[in-house]
UniProtKB/TrEMBL annotation:
<dbReference type="InterPro" id="IPR039261">
    <property type="entry name" value="FNR_nucleotide-bd"/>
</dbReference>
<dbReference type="InterPro" id="IPR036010">
    <property type="entry name" value="2Fe-2S_ferredoxin-like_sf"/>
</dbReference>
<dbReference type="GO" id="GO:0051537">
    <property type="term" value="F:2 iron, 2 sulfur cluster binding"/>
</dbReference>
<keyword id="KW-0285">Flavoprotein</keyword>
<keyword id="KW-0411">Iron-sulfur</keyword>
<dbReference type="InterPro" id="IPR001041">
    <property type="entry name" value="2Fe-2S_ferredoxin-type"/>
</dbReference>
<dbReference type="GO" id="GO:0016491">
    <property type="term" value="F:oxidoreductase activity"/>
</dbReference>
<keyword id="KW-0408">Iron</keyword>
<dbReference type="Pfam" id="PF00111">
    <property type="entry name" value="Fer2"/>
</dbReference>
<dbReference type="InterPro" id="IPR006058">
    <property type="entry name" value="2Fe2S_fd_BS"/>
</dbReference>
<dbReference type="InterPro" id="IPR050415">
    <property type="entry name" value="MRET"/>
</dbReference>
<protein>
    <submittedName>
        <fullName>Oxidoreductase</fullName>
    </submittedName>
</protein>
<dbReference type="InterPro" id="IPR012675">
    <property type="entry name" value="Beta-grasp_dom_sf"/>
</dbReference>
<keyword id="KW-0560">Oxidoreductase</keyword>
<keyword id="KW-0001">2Fe-2S</keyword>
<feature type="domain" description="FAD-binding FR-type">
    <location>
        <begin position="56"/>
        <end position="158"/>
    </location>
</feature>
<keyword id="KW-0479">Metal-binding</keyword>
Length: 372
């Protein structure tokens, strides 16, 4: 393992299949001045359905161990609550934990997908919390939890070249299962971890396989050049056939993509990003009308479409509320959505017929949406 003193949150899926036959209409009118930033998420358009994973049936697990990796990150070990083995999962997959009615959160599975005796997840306590991380940090060992395997929106792809895994902070978590899978398959890979403080360099050491050795690099930005400079240096060393999988905050993902993507072949950069709280990622307010004669609602800049609809008594199913899982997906009948999610593919976003309503907004004067 190499430790350096300076630095270097989706398969091919048919998103429209998640829209059901019962529908109602929403009409959105946009006020001027809305934000225009749109995160990107690349995918292989030619991947077959074998790469897709639908959500598994709910099942029960027992919290058998919990420990603090740092002041804000808690590691959980979960085992089957019955004699049955745990369902198999894919590298990059996440576990949906159903904490309470209307409160489901997704956490990346850390271990080798070949492991069937336990699941491990790491949860960072957010401040302020939207409920999920606070509830997880309050769980006691012995608690029975209802869970399910979430659709894998961040899978490994086949390819002849090497693989570069880039993680910032707790964004390393989905990359750990990928590293296990790549090592077992005999594929060449590097795992590069970025953090801010020197004290965090060894935060996840106990989760790394010592056999990975020199394949693992760690960088603390407080001790050297900015991460963007290290990423620029890294780009110069990458063969064009390299596949890059990056996970972390939006700013880190954007920087990594800007620095590395021009060096890569088409469709070789894959990401899973942590979205900001919808209440903090808004923009100018806009009006919402349910149906041609429906009540006009105001969506302020510090609230999401989903939040306003719920306040008006409209039931909207959600899970992650970060633009990652697609549970709140709706069909766009008219208008142009402003995409802020990491669920839809680039072609789906360009087509403009779908929207993730927990984070995305409106980029035109009017949107008409369909939802069961």
């Amino acid at each position: 393992m190499r430790v350096f003193s300076n630095p270097c949150s989706l398969n091919c899926r048919d998103a429209t299949s998640r829209i059901f036959s019962r529908r109602w209409l929403l009409v959105f009118s946009l006020c001027p001045g809305a934000a225009t930033r749109t995160p990107r998420h690349d995918e292989f358009a030619t991947m077959g359905t074998a790469s897709m994973r639908t959500a598994d049936t709910d099942f029960d697990v027992r919290l058998t161990a919990a420990s603090m990796l740092s002041d804000g990150i808690r590691l959980f070990e979960l085992q089957s609550a019955t004699a049955a083995p745990l369902p198999a999962f894919e590298a990059g997959a996440s576990l949906a934990v159903h904490l309470a009615p209307g409160l489901t959160r997704h956490y990346s599975l850390l271990d080798d997908p070949a492991t069937r005796g336990r699941y491990r997840i790491a949860v960072k306590r957010e401040s302020p919390s939207r409920g999920g991380s606070e509830a997880m940090h309050g769980l006691q060992v012995g608690r029975i939890l209802r869970v399910s395997l979430a659709p894998n929106n961040f899978p490994l792809r086949p390819g002849p070249g090497s693989t570069l895994l880039l993680g910032a902070g707790i964004g390393i978590t989905p990359l750990l299962s990928m590293a296990h899978q790549l090592a077992r398959d005999g594929r060449d890979f590097r795992l590069v971890y970025y953090c801010r403080e020197a004290r965090d360099l060894h935060l996840f050491d106990d989760l790394l396989d010592p056999r990975w050795g020199e394949r693992v690099e760690k960088h603390a930005s407080r001790l050297g050049p900015p991460t963007r400079e290290r990423l620029a240096q890294l780009a110069g060393t990458l063969p064009a056939a390299t596949q890059v999988y990056a996970c972390g905050p939006a700013g880190f993902i954007d920087t990594a993509r800007t620095r590395l993507e021009p060096r890569l072949g088409p469709g070789q950069f894959f990401e899973e990003r942590f979205q900001a709280d919808p209440a903090q990622a808004g923009g100018d307010g806009f009006s919402v009308q349910l149906g041609a004669q429906g009540e006009v609602l105001w969506v302020p800049g510090d609230k999401s479409i989903v939040q306003v609809l719920r306040e008006a008594g409209v039931a909207v199913e959600t899970s992650c509320e970060m633009g990652l899982c697609g549970t709140c997906l709706m069909r766009v009948v008219e208008g142009e959505p402003l995409h802020r999610d990491s669920y839809l593919t680039d072609p789906e976003k360009a087509e403009g017929r779908l929207i993730i309503t927990c984070v995305s907004r409106c980029a035109s004067g009017r949107l008409v949406l369909e939802r069961p």
